[in-house]
Specification:
The structure is a single chain. The protein is elongated and about 125 Å long. The chain folds into two domains: 94 residues, no CATH class; 101 residues. It has a four-stranded antiparallel β-sheet with strand order 1-4-5-6, covered by helices on one side. A two-stranded antiparallel sheet has the order 2-3. The chain has 214 residues and is of the alpha+beta class. It has five helices and six strands, in the order ββββββααααα. Helix content is 42%, strand content 17%.
Amino acid sequence: MENVAYVRSFNASEGGRTFQSVGHEKGGAFPKFDTMAVRVEVDGVIKWVDREVVQIFIPGDAKAVPVQKVTDEHRDRWPQHYQAFKSNQEPSVDGTPLEMWGGLSKAQVANLKAANIRTVEDIAGLTDGQLDAVGRGARELRIAAQSYVKLQEDRDAAEFYAREADRERAEKDLTKAQLSEALERLEALEAKMAAGDAAPPRRGPGRPKKETDQ
């Protein structure tokens, strides 16, 4: 039987190396994947093996998060983040990074990140119970973030419908052009047929000349 002991806590960085998979679900939890050495006891023999581990962070909750062994549930829930971890790449963050949202000071950004809040969407999705982690002005900040997110959604929707309208106009223009071309071909064919009917019939070759004896 195998007993596994995770012998160290999961830090944001260790030995100058930053762990991978720092993406997150929009307005929800986000994972950090890593590979760490764990102590395993097999039939009374202790040895060290590499294991994939994950920490799951929740925006607005700054409590220590235990290290977990990576399971298929984690892989299915965050497939892009897990693939980025396996490829030793940084996954894209789903949302607007705090640094890109005007009006926040560097100190505010640092405090929000300390509470595992990384995007404007995270702020907008905070519950009343999670606002304490933000501190003073948290409710006003959430209202501002929700307004920003709503504006972005409306803008995205407007751009989508504009693209759809352009596509429909292009399809109609193409249909008109194709119909016009087909009509021109039909008119040309009718004109050719009419010209053929009006022309006098061509005489066939005459009877061969009768040969006479000399």
